[in-house]
# Entry
Amino acid sequence: MSPVNFADHAPATGFAVHDGMIHVGGRPLDEIAGQTPCYVYDRASITATVQRLRDALPRGIAIHYAVKANPMPEVVAHCATLVDGLDIASAGELALVSQAGYDLSRVSFAGPGKRETELAAALEAGITVNLESERELDVLCRLGGDSQKRPRVAVRVNPPFQLRSSGMRMGGGAQQFGIDAEAVPALLQRIGSLEVDFEGFHIFTGSQNLSADAICEGQRETCRLAIDLAREAPAPVRLLNLGGGFGIPYFPSEQPLDLAPIAANLAALLPRVSAAMPDATVALELGRFLVGPAGIYVCRVIERKVSRGKVFLVTDGGMHHHLAASGNFGQVLRKNYPVTIANRADSTDLETASVVGPLCTPLDLLADSMRLPRAQPGDLVAVFQSGAYGRTASPLGFLSHPAPGEVLV
Ligand SMILES: *Cc1c(COP(=O)(O)O)cnc(C)c1O
# Structure
């Protein structure tokens, strides 16, 4: 067995090739993906990633899973056995984690514009609400008064700084996320006067960051801000959620994130945080980093079409299943995900081909003029790094094709 390798992409080291076929969890991909298109997720990969994180990070750092990265119930259930908390972003995700029987005292709920029904569900479930506005606090207090339940709240802070090198910025400057840091002291004072339990702070500044330096700088600034705000806190801070933003390599020339400097930086920050907030658990909330590398999107070549000398592999899958791989989920310049022909993964007979889907739009592109094993109808296309923001972040209804299946192996 040899690992899957690409000329231009960071190696997808998690998956083996045997007799030309990619294997997941010791099983050939064509057997797992009996019905295409589908997403295949590797349980062992998720387990190994969490273990690698725990081995690298200083003891005492809690790891939370951000459910929105991949809400497949089996994936969430598996992650729940590995991590210290779940972060959700809707009442739908709350229903998901409740049905899984997960310990709701370790669930927190972020996201702007929480509706009254969602806040009521959060109150009923006893989860922590990361306040994104003063309105959310007002609604929770009213609902709490009506139901004789004490809301559990943390304050999501929009920091005055931005995280460098982030694929998606979600903090700093003007934002729909969180409460501007300068308005937080007054809010904390109000919280102290209300019938609510104060949990702590949530500061999330961005996603898909591959620069350890930028992440370290963000964590230093985040801790400094939290230490300042903790002086104004109405009760001991129990949870300091530093966000995450750990990225994974998708495109040519990107390299996996180096955890060692991040671990060293956190080890240096922890004593300062503990001195200021002795009761606080420090948590990282990660989605993509935990589940992204564990997923492969698989579709089948329907037709091999040559148009004026250019080869198109037309498949039964596409952007309606995997918007991110088509380049339309946060990319500025479209680049290819790591893609190969799953049943010819060790072939040296390569050609330049584009992988497209069945939609009537040129945006429906899974690989653009990529060096791939020469493929025939019936072959399987594998798109790696597809475990996060794949199916869940795709316009499944567009053109009314069937939705892709999902399997956790
Ligand atoms: C989306 C999101 C995450 C997860 O981000 P990843 O880049 O997938 O790790 C974590 N926290 C919050 C508040 C989010 O909105």
